[in-house]
Amino acid sequence: MSSMGxxxxxSEITTDLKSIVKLxxxxxxxxxxxxxxxxxxxxxxxxxxxxxxxxxxxxIVKIIAKYGENAPEEVYKYTKMIKEAIRN
Length: 88
Description:
Blueprint: H1 17-27, E1 33-34, H2 41-49, E2 53-54, H3 58-67, H4 71-87
Parallel strand pairs: 1-2
């Protein structure tokens, strides 16, 4: 979890996740993924660099709501953009 509260797109995540993920990794071998609010390539790149993975949900739901039948192509473009950001 990247922030306290309900799920949804955030423009800024201010929780000290680097310290929290370090604590989890120092305590267990269970992979630590970060979610709740991640929606931009920049957020995806940063949070994937300090964790074992990221979880994006609300941003994809918004794309589906906006594009309806045409959503698969838009979701593909979005996830490709996120994947490219993580690889850099």
